[in-house]
Amino acid sequence: MGDTDQELLTRIAAGDQDAMMAFYDRYFGLVAGYCRKLIHDRMQADEVIQDVFWQVWKTACLYDAGRASATVWLMTIARSRAIDRLRRLAKETATVEWDAAGEAVTSSNNVEQAVVARSAQDALYDALDQLPDAQKAMIAAVYIRGQTAEQAARRQQIPVGTAKTRLRLGLEKLRRMVGVDAY
Protein backbone atom coordinates (compact mmCIF):
# COMPACT_ATOMS: atom_id res chain seq x y z
CA MET A 1 0.00 0.00 0.00
CA GLY A 2 1.18 3.55 -0.64
CA ASP A 3 1.98 6.33 1.76
CA THR A 4 -0.70 7.77 3.99
CA ASP A 5 -1.87 11.31 3.32
CA GLN A 6 0.01 12.49 6.41
CA GLU A 7 3.24 10.89 5.17
CA LEU A 8 2.80 12.44 1.74
CA LEU A 9 2.16 15.89 3.20
CA THR A 10 5.22 15.59 5.43
CA ARG A 11 7.31 14.69 2.40
CA ILE A 12 5.73 17.51 0.37
CA ALA A 13 6.62 19.96 3.16
CA ALA A 14 10.22 18.76 2.79
CA GLY A 15 10.12 19.52 -0.95
CA ASP A 16 9.60 15.97 -2.25
CA GLN A 17 8.19 16.31 -5.79
CA ASP A 18 7.36 12.61 -6.06
CA ALA A 19 5.19 12.91 -2.96
CA MET A 20 3.46 15.91 -4.51
CA MET A 21 2.75 13.95 -7.69
CA ALA A 22 1.38 11.04 -5.67
CA PHE A 23 -0.85 13.41 -3.68
CA TYR A 24 -1.94 15.10 -6.91
CA ASP A 25 -2.74 11.77 -8.55
CA ARG A 26 -4.69 10.67 -5.48
CA TYR A 27 -6.83 13.80 -5.18
CA PHE A 28 -6.99 15.39 -8.63
CA GLY A 29 -10.36 13.81 -9.48
CA LEU A 30 -11.96 14.94 -6.24
CA VAL A 31 -10.66 18.52 -6.49
CA ALA A 32 -11.41 18.77 -10.22
CA GLY A 33 -14.96 17.52 -9.80
CA TYR A 34 -15.63 19.94 -6.97
CA CYS A 35 -14.11 22.98 -8.71
CA ARG A 36 -15.77 22.26 -12.04
CA LYS A 37 -19.12 21.89 -10.32
CA LEU A 38 -18.76 25.29 -8.63
CA ILE A 39 -17.15 27.12 -11.55
CA HIS A 40 -18.90 26.36 -14.81
CA ASP A 41 -16.14 27.86 -16.97
CA ARG A 42 -13.79 24.92 -17.45
CA MET A 43 -10.70 27.06 -18.06
CA GLN A 44 -11.32 29.07 -14.88
CA ALA A 45 -11.99 25.87 -12.93
CA ASP A 46 -8.76 24.33 -14.21
CA GLU A 47 -6.83 27.40 -13.10
CA VAL A 48 -8.37 27.05 -9.64
CA ILE A 49 -7.37 23.38 -9.55
CA GLN A 50 -3.81 24.39 -10.37
CA ASP A 51 -3.94 27.07 -7.65
CA VAL A 52 -5.17 24.50 -5.12
CA PHE A 53 -2.30 22.12 -5.72
CA TRP A 54 0.21 24.98 -5.81
CA GLN A 55 -1.07 26.05 -2.39
CA VAL A 56 -0.71 22.47 -1.13
CA TRP A 57 2.91 22.53 -2.33
CA LYS A 58 3.60 25.85 -0.61
CA THR A 59 1.68 25.24 2.64
CA ALA A 60 1.96 21.50 3.32
CA CYS A 61 4.10 22.36 6.34
CA LEU A 62 1.03 24.02 7.91
CA TYR A 63 -1.12 20.88 7.72
CA ASP A 64 -2.12 19.65 11.20
CA ALA A 65 -3.55 16.13 11.28
CA GLY A 66 -4.96 16.86 14.74
CA ARG A 67 -7.29 19.51 13.33
CA ALA A 68 -8.61 17.85 10.17
CA SER A 69 -8.03 15.00 7.77
CA ALA A 70 -5.94 15.71 4.69
CA THR A 71 -9.08 15.49 2.56
CA VAL A 72 -10.91 18.10 4.64
CA TRP A 73 -7.82 20.35 4.62
CA LEU A 74 -7.46 20.00 0.85
CA MET A 75 -11.15 20.60 0.14
CA THR A 76 -11.11 23.67 2.40
CA ILE A 77 -8.32 25.04 0.22
CA ALA A 78 -10.30 24.13 -2.91
CA ARG A 79 -13.45 25.81 -1.59
CA SER A 80 -11.55 28.95 -0.64
CA ARG A 81 -9.77 29.20 -4.02
CA ALA A 82 -13.03 28.54 -5.92
CA ILE A 83 -14.95 31.19 -3.98
CA ASP A 84 -12.13 33.69 -4.49
CA ARG A 85 -12.23 33.00 -8.24
CA LEU A 86 -16.03 33.32 -8.40
CA ARG A 87 -15.86 36.66 -6.59
CA ARG A 88 -13.17 37.90 -8.95
CA LEU A 89 -15.15 36.77 -11.99
CA ALA A 90 -18.30 38.45 -10.69
CA LYS A 91 -16.37 41.67 -10.17
CA GLU A 92 -14.84 41.51 -13.66
CA THR A 93 -18.19 40.97 -15.37
CA ALA A 94 -19.68 43.86 -13.41
CA THR A 95 -17.01 46.24 -14.76
CA VAL A 96 -18.23 48.34 -17.67
CA GLU A 97 -16.05 50.47 -19.93
CA TRP A 98 -17.24 53.98 -20.78
CA ASP A 99 -16.35 56.18 -23.72
CA ALA A 100 -15.65 59.92 -23.55
CA ALA A 101 -19.36 60.74 -23.99
CA GLY A 102 -20.29 58.58 -21.01
CA GLU A 103 -21.76 55.78 -23.11
CA ALA A 104 -21.15 52.15 -22.27
CA VAL A 105 -18.69 50.59 -24.71
CA THR A 106 -18.63 47.00 -25.89
CA SER A 107 -16.12 45.58 -28.27
CA SER A 108 -17.81 43.16 -30.64
CA ASN A 109 -14.36 42.07 -31.80
CA ASN A 110 -13.37 41.02 -28.27
CA VAL A 111 -16.70 39.28 -27.76
CA GLU A 112 -16.32 37.38 -31.02
CA GLN A 113 -12.78 36.35 -30.15
CA ALA A 114 -13.89 35.20 -26.71
CA VAL A 115 -16.76 33.15 -28.15
CA VAL A 116 -14.50 31.51 -30.75
CA ALA A 117 -11.81 30.77 -28.16
CA ARG A 118 -14.36 29.35 -25.72
CA SER A 119 -15.90 27.19 -28.43
CA ALA A 120 -12.49 25.82 -29.44
CA GLN A 121 -11.60 25.17 -25.82
CA ASP A 122 -14.87 23.32 -25.19
CA ALA A 123 -14.32 21.20 -28.31
CA LEU A 124 -10.82 20.32 -27.13
CA TYR A 125 -12.02 19.33 -23.63
CA ASP A 126 -14.85 17.25 -25.11
CA ALA A 127 -12.39 15.48 -27.40
CA LEU A 128 -9.95 14.93 -24.54
CA ASP A 129 -12.72 13.28 -22.50
CA GLN A 130 -13.27 10.79 -25.35
CA LEU A 131 -9.67 9.56 -25.41
CA PRO A 132 -8.71 6.25 -23.79
CA ASP A 133 -7.55 6.78 -20.19
CA ALA A 134 -3.92 5.82 -20.96
CA GLN A 135 -3.64 8.44 -23.73
CA LYS A 136 -5.49 11.06 -21.68
CA ALA A 137 -3.11 10.46 -18.76
CA MET A 138 -0.05 10.95 -20.98
CA ILE A 139 -1.39 14.16 -22.52
CA ALA A 140 -2.26 15.50 -19.06
CA ALA A 141 1.18 14.60 -17.71
CA VAL A 142 3.06 16.26 -20.56
CA TYR A 143 0.86 19.21 -21.51
CA ILE A 144 -0.86 20.07 -18.22
CA ARG A 145 1.70 19.06 -15.60
CA GLY A 146 4.69 19.93 -17.78
CA GLN A 147 6.48 16.60 -17.44
CA THR A 148 8.71 15.15 -20.13
CA ALA A 149 7.61 11.88 -21.71
CA GLU A 150 10.42 10.18 -19.78
CA GLN A 151 9.22 11.59 -16.43
CA ALA A 152 5.63 10.63 -17.20
CA ALA A 153 6.72 7.11 -18.17
CA ARG A 154 8.61 6.74 -14.90
CA ARG A 155 5.60 8.03 -12.89
CA GLN A 156 3.23 5.68 -14.69
CA GLN A 157 5.73 2.82 -14.50
CA ILE A 158 5.67 2.12 -18.23
CA PRO A 159 8.43 1.98 -20.87
CA VAL A 160 9.38 5.33 -22.42
CA GLY A 161 8.49 4.03 -25.89
CA THR A 162 5.00 3.13 -24.70
CA ALA A 163 4.59 6.57 -23.15
CA LYS A 164 5.64 8.30 -26.37
CA THR A 165 3.33 6.09 -28.44
CA ARG A 166 0.38 6.86 -26.17
CA LEU A 167 1.16 10.55 -26.39
CA ARG A 168 1.47 10.49 -30.20
CA LEU A 169 -1.71 8.45 -30.69
CA GLY A 170 -3.64 10.65 -28.28
CA LEU A 171 -2.52 13.83 -30.04
CA GLU A 172 -3.40 12.37 -33.45
CA LYS A 173 -6.89 11.48 -32.22
CA LEU A 174 -7.33 14.94 -30.72
CA ARG A 175 -6.32 16.56 -34.02
CA ARG A 176 -8.85 14.45 -35.93
CA MET A 177 -11.64 15.08 -33.41
CA VAL A 178 -11.23 18.85 -33.31
CA GLY A 179 -10.41 19.19 -37.00
CA VAL A 180 -6.85 20.47 -36.73
CA ASP A 181 -4.62 19.42 -39.61
CA ALA A 182 -1.43 17.68 -38.60
CA TYR A 183 1.68 19.32 -39.96
UniProtKB/TrEMBL annotation:
Keywords linked to the UniProt accession = Sigma factor, Transcription, Transcription regulation
Signal peptide as annotated in the record: none
Q: Does the keyword Transmembrane apply?
A: no
Domain (RNA polymerase sigma factor 70 region 4 type): give its ranges.
Answer: 122-174
Q: Which NCBIfam families match?
A: sigma70-ECF
PANTHER family in the record: RNA POLYMERASE ECF-TYPE SIGMA FACTO, RNA POLYMERASE SIGMA FACTOR SIGZ
**Name of the protein described by the UniProt record:** RNA polymerase, sigma-24 subunit, ECF subfamily
Organism annotation: Sulfobacillus acidophilus (strain ATCC 700253 / DSM 10332 / NAL)
